[in-house]
Amino acid sequence: MDFEPKILGIACNWCTYTGADLAGTTRLQYPQNLRVVRVMCSSRINPSFIFRAFQLGADGVLVGGCHPGDCHYNTGNLYARRRLAVTRKILEFAGIEPGRFRVEWISASEGNKFAEVVTEFTEQVRNLGPQTKFKIEQLPTPEKI
Amino acid sequence: MSINFKQIEEKLKSEATKLLEEGKVGVVLAYGKGYDENHPLPFVARKASDVENIVFNEYCTANMARYIVRYPRGTKIAIAVKAADSRAVIQLIQEDKVKREDLVILGIPAYGMKNAKTGEVVDSKTTCGMYNPVIYDTLLGEEVHGQSVVSPYDVLAEYEAMDKEARWAFWKKELDKCIRCYACRKACPMCYCDPCFIDQNKPKWGEKSPESHGNLMYHLTRFHHLAGRCIDCGECSRACPVDIPLYLFHKKVAKDCEEMFGQAAGMSIEDKPALVNFRVEDSDKILE
Ligand code: FES
User: Fold this and answer.
1) Dihedral of alpha carbons B60, B250, B173, B209, sign
2) Which atom of ligand 1 is nearest to the CA of A15?
3) pLDDT in tens, B124-182
4) What would the pLDDT profile of A11-51 be if each residue is shown by its tens digit?
């Protein structure tokens, strides 16, 4: 059976999420492997979310935010950029393929970029295969998380 | 040339007595007698008569900056620091945990410190490999010069060259040893959160029992929290009862931060910690 990756998308409310909306309203096709979580800003993302996502079975994590300088809160994504760069290095040194984690700046009007990025990233993760290193074998029941 | 530990001890004692008698400081953070020569303990002198218990020898590796945050703001503190410890002090000042005015920093230039557990010399392999304190009010002893300077990041080459699978196997093996005693957290001068993220129940960030994924979550997040702040004193690894080489990961993160943001932790009071700062000209390259 073909491997269908599970991908967690964390999107900022003002740009990437709206961009995803636009992709939807313009009826662009993109793979359904992405589960999007909306946050108010990319700097809202605690790096532990990403580690935890990998532990709870995500095969890839895609983070979307406004273009640098365009953040709704002015500087949020500039902090996030530094922070997520470190997260990436940590994942890499721990032995996770760096291709499983990606940060993209997608603005509210870039519906087609959103669709493109998701398609490309899904393909990339599909090629990397299932993520087993961090994954918890026996998942705790939802109430226990 | 070698370090005259007895002389430093004498100077430390006389400075401490002076400061306490004049009432300049409320506490002096230094090292005291342990159950034997090789195991000196962190020691707090509160009055002049405590000073006689102060010792300083090559086994005094603990980082006393750890104890600064335990005192209420405004307490006048004198602290004995070695090179890495002084960077920790600077980092704490940067993070506004303590004010420069409230500190009297007694710098100790030293090398050839020894790890009490293994007896090995503590050098750039496990620490930042510096000899002279970066910041001090009084220097006890003479500045060290002419010692070979080795990059603290040299030890990383071997691990960076490993392929991903081997590195994952290495870290899995090491982190699985963790018994979650949290000695690393207790020894670390930068770990002052109360409560620590791993002790929180809502949300529960990771499993609290000592098994692989809880350990992984705890350590990875701790490495992340110390990114751009770890001053590479190596105390976490010396405190570890099961000898996990935590310093390796910390060094790696510190190295990456230095490369990406152009600033090492705890080198100047004026800096801001790298991750609570940004430059507009930071490039997206760092995300690739
Ligand atoms: S609001 Fe979009 S990144 Fe801050």
Assistant:
1) positive
2) 2
3) 888 888 889 999 999 988 888 877 778 889 889 999 999 999 999 999 999 999 999 99
4) 999 999 999 999 999 999 999 999 999 999 999 999 999 99
A-chain residue closest to B283, CA distance: A81
Q: Are A68 and B284 in contact (CB under 8 A)?
A: yes
Which residues neighbour B260 within 8 Å (Cβ) at sequence distance 6 or greater?
A82, A85, A86, B286
Closest residue, chain A, to B258 (C-alpha): A86
Task: Indicate whether B111 and B175 sit together in one domain.
Answer: no
- ipTM of this predicted complex? 0.90
Domain that holds residue B184: 154-280
Is CATH 3.30.300.30 correct for A7-128? Answer: no
What atom in ligand 1 is closest to the CA of residue A16? 2
Calpha distance B235→B238 (Å, rounded): 5
Contact A82 B260 (CB under 8 A): yes
Residues touching ligand 1 (Cβ under 6 Å) are A 12, 14-15, 41-42, 65-66, 71-73, 76-77
Question: Total domain count for chain B?
Answer: 2
